[in-house]
Structures are given as structure tokens and as C-alpha cells.
Amino acid sequence: VDLRYTPQEEAFRADLRDWLANVLPDLPPQPSADDWPARRAYDTGWQRTLFEGGYAGVNWPTEYGGRGATLTEQLIYLEETTLAGAPYIGVNFVGMLHAGPTIMAEASEGQKAAHLPAILRGDEVWCQGFSEPSAGSDLAALGCKAVLDGDEYVITGQKTWTSFAQVADWCELLIRTDPAASKHRGITWVMFPMDTPGVEIRPLRTVVGTSEFSEVFFDEARVAVSNRVGLENDGWRVAMVTFGFERGTGFVSDLVETGKMLQELAELAKHVTRGSATAWDDVSVRRDIGQMQAEMDALWALTKRNLAQADRNGVPGAGGSLVKVCYSELLQRLTEVAMELLGRAGLSRTDVGDLPSGAFVEERLRSLSFSIAAGTSQIQRNIIAERILGLPKEKPWTSS
Amino acid sequence: VDFELNDDQAALAAGVRSFCEGRLPIDVVRALEPAGGVDRGLWRELADLGVFSLRLPEADGGVGLGWAESVLVAEELGRALTPGPLLWSQLLGGLVDGVADGSVLVAGVERDDPSGLVEYGGLVDHLAVLDDDGVRVVGAADVGLEPQPLPLDPLTPVWRRTAPLPEGDQVAGPDEVATLRRGGAVLVAAFLLGIAEVATADAVAYSLERTQFDRPIGSFQSLKHLMADMVIRTELARAAVYAAGVTLDDPSVGDVERAVAGAKLLAADAAIGNTKSSVQVHGGMGYTWEIDAHLQLKRAYALEPTFGTRPELAERLAGLVGQL
User: Is-catalytic flag, A232?
Assistant: First the structure.
């Protein structure tokens, strides 16, 4: 176990800090939360800035224009950009972290050339068409139907929870090409242009009031077979390859953000008055904060441990499930403590007078999704129980 | 940054585990109950392994390793539920004559501990008394000690001090005692981590073996989630405990106070949480003396208060966050 940074890593950090200090003051103002064209422009503008600065695709191999950074450098990149308040990856998420890496691993040279440079520059925005109303935790049950007609697939069905669908150019889409095959077979992975006729996007309003996700309906929408990545009916494997890219850096930004928020919670506790005392004088509040700090620090250490294991074994362990469960439940607890502290000031989603309360109320709502999205905490616990402990799967359900 | 055991560390941990599996299977540990958990022969063997001289320089006959390695050894000894005054032998080897070679047994207390209880007090040669000024050693026979008839952990018998402590000989000063307390907290955390692991392993094994409704009970989601939480607590604690060991060796990589307090807090959460869950997974059998879960649970509770209870540590951590 060695927690020291090498001189090269320290130099990487110092250069990045300098660069961030240079470019961040010139950022345009943040767009409003539900103005999606403006958010696209803002996020892709930042991607372009990263590209010009040599920081686009820190985790992408150099042969595809990325920086090919080590995992520790990726950790430093995510830590420093978050601490500096740089924009989040936003609408570039699917392209940079899901579709792009899948294309690198599975697509033809022509397909790679058509998309990878455009994603890296921020010219192309992608969304993900995986989940369906009847295929959530059980993703392989997806039924979005595709029928081969000459050199095209004709697609009819529905996707949901599709982030950034309103502003995406392309969709990494899973379609059912063989309804007779068992559920993991018969799925195909295609690159689908979002401006195809027969596509309807209906934004879903979330608990925070904005529309991060959409439902996407396909009514005999046609896509060229040449847009298929991998073989027909081999799409489940292709989709799983994507998940194999996760090396344990997935929650680094969130952890850093949450660390900041915990400090802010301690500050908030000192500002919330209760008669002649403050909430900070309440030992139970201090213990809650101390406990969460211990867990935050341990999650940070666990992240480094997961990275070290991914580095050696080339595959991520089930350690990612551990971090996800802990992190999402920790953030929910943090915001719950904040709501208890705020009392009536929690009635407003914006700051109440001088009290910096708005961000906590907002995060209490937003964090509800964290134990649901990308594998619920319950599914994660199944994964931990089955893959780490070797416990058996539950018997299949049969109607009586 | 490489948060993975290096080859030497992995070999050290494997060596101690293999020693424990051969020398300290749970039947042997249980058989030590009439002797109050103390086996002087075992102590010599642990000394020969280098357990009590791990951090002493090689020039002084020690192994020349650090806290990072001490943590790994303590984790394995904790996993085996090794009874006896381990913590103090690991802390005081080199400071008190005869401890490093296993010939002398020492128990330790904080001078201002209001309970007045001393683990293994009537079975050791010396008592180490800690306060902010340092560590003083007194002869165990010179301290008025009364046995408590019913200890929580049958393998951690306790005596109560009934008279003021004699003056004794100073073996460490104020700076050293601070280091010993921090190191001691991390060693206790490592014992607790080992207990959290063995509790999980036992619960999983039982849940695979025990069938009800024609299937292993370990296939029921309610129990799987209970056991998944055991893994989560263990791995969080492991990350914290290993990081604390490394930070003690090289304070430039982190905040020592924060790392130590967090490690001990989370290791206690893991050990107590996991042993309770193991009792639950074992069902009715978990409430019997025959199943090991109670020994693990009792050891976890017996270790938890040493060098800071969880509420104290949480408050200390809040104080550190509040200053930032």
C-alpha cells in the first residue's frame, strides 16, 4: 500500500491546476436547468475547451485522440476539476463514457472514424436507449422490436429514462432482432440517428421539476444495417463490454462534491440557531457529521483501492457496487440531516435570507435518484451477495 | 498511489493466517477459556513469529516493519479471535523488557478510566498505566485487583482495581504515549476488521449449508442483503484501517488524527454490525454457546471501548471537520 503521489503525478496535478485557473474565469454563465439547447451548448463548449487544452478524454487511449492517462491521473483529473468548480461532463456523458468506449472496442474502422473524433471535440452528443418501461433492473427483458427490411432495420417500440434525448444527435440503441431467442440472445446494438423520421421524444418531468430524462417512441423508424456495431443478436455482449470499461473512477467527482457538501453542512450547523445555541452545539448533530466524515474518507480510500485492483487485474471488481451503494446512501443521509437542521427553512428550494439552505434542499430531492439510477441499491446488494459472496440466485418465480 | 498490498505485505498476512489456521483453530481458542485465554507457550510462538517486535529496528532484533504491516498481522490475529493481552504486547515490545520475546505479559489501562477494569489483569506480570504524561509500568502483583466473576467475553477475563495505583517506572513520555494511543487505536481497529471478516465468512457458510423451504437460506434476498451489508461495512473499514496504518508510517499522505479516528470508528461499526448480523443469519443456533457468533460478538464489544468509543470518535472527527 503506497498512498504517495509520484513526481509525474504531482506535475500532472500542478499543470492541470494552472490550466483550470486560466480557462475557468472565461466560462460563459451557466444556463438555466431546463433550457436543454443552452445546456447542450454550454456542456459541448466545455468539451471543446477540454479538447483544445489536451484534457478531452483523459481516460481515452491516445490512438483515439485521448490522453491515455493512468488511473491515478484520472483520479487527479476528476478531483481537481471538481474542486475547481469546472463544469460537469453533462450531455457528453454517454458519448465520452459509454457509446464512445463501446465504439472503440467493437466498431469498424469506418464507424470509429465517423464518430470518435466528433465525440471528443464536443461536436456530437449521444444518448442511451437501453431501459424500457418493462425492462429496468431486468434490462435483458427489453422488447423494442426491429425487423430486417433489405439493408435497414425497422424499429417499433419504446425506450425510457433516456437522458439528453432532446438534444442528442445519436443514440446507442438496444433492439430486439430475434424475438424467438432467449432473452440475452436476440438483442442488437445500433448507432441510431435521433433525427430519423418516426421518432417521438416526450420529456419526463422529474421530482426536481426539470426534464433530465425522456421517453422515446419509435414508430417504424428505419436505421441502416451498416449502423450496427458487432454482430446481429450479439448486442447484449456489446452492451456489457461498455460496463467493463468502468475502472472505479465513476463516482470520484460525486465523492469530491459530497466532501465539500459535508464541510458546508458543518458550516450550516454553526449558522442554524436554536434559542441561544446553534445546531453545532448539539452533540448528536456533531456525531452525525463525524460519522459521515469517516465514511467519506473511507470511500475515498476504497476508491483508490478499487483503482489499484482494476489496474492489476484489468477488470473492475464488484468494488464499484460497494462504492455506489455507500455513496448514494451517504449522500441521502447527509441531505436528510440537513433537512432536520433546516426545519422551516427547508420549505424553500432557494436560500432563505442569509442561510445557505437552497443547495441542501435541492440535493435532498436530487439524491433520491442516486439509489435508483444505474442499478438500484437493492440490485447492487444482489450483485455483492452473488458475485463477492457467491450466494445463490433466487429461484425463478412461477405462478401458482 | 497504489492502494494494494505489495508482495511482501501479502506474504506476511498469508503467513500469519496460515499460522493461525494451524495453531489457533476455534476449538483450541475455546479450550483456553479455563485459563482465562492466556497461554504463555502461544505467546512465545507469537514472539518467535515477530508479532511483538514487528516495528523494532532490525539492529535491535526486531523485524523493522511499520504500522502498515502491524495492521495486517493484527487483522489476522483478530480473525482467529486470538485471546490474551495481544494489544499491549504489540504496543510495548521494545519498551518493556521481556515483552518482545514473549516471556513477559503486560496488561494496559488508562489511569483515569472510571470503570477501573483491567483485561487479563490477574494473569499478567505487569500493568502499563497510560496518562497524558506517558506510560508507567507497575508490577501486577502490586496492584489491588479483584476478579469480576462474569466477564462479557469468556476469553477476555477482567479484574477491577480496588486501590490507588503505585507510582511505577516511566517507560515512555508524553510524545510517545500519543503515538502509542494512535497506534493502539489502529491495532484495535485491525482486530475488529478481522472479526468483521470471520463473522461474514461464517454467516455465508451457514446460509449455504442450512436449507428451509427446499433451498439454502442464503438464496433468500432478505438474508443476501443482510450479508451484502456485512461486505460493505467490512470493505469500508478495511480501506480506512489500511489507510490509517500507512498514514501512521508517513503522515505526509494524510491527516493522522482523522485517519485513526475514522478507522477505529468504522472497524467497530463493521465488527459489531457484522457479528450481530451473523447471529441473525444463524437463527436459533446463533443464540447458542455452540456457534462461534457469540464469541465474535462479545470480542467485538470487548474491544470497542479501547482508545475511543464510537460516539467519542465521531465527535472528535466532527471537531476536525469543523475546523477546516
Answer: no
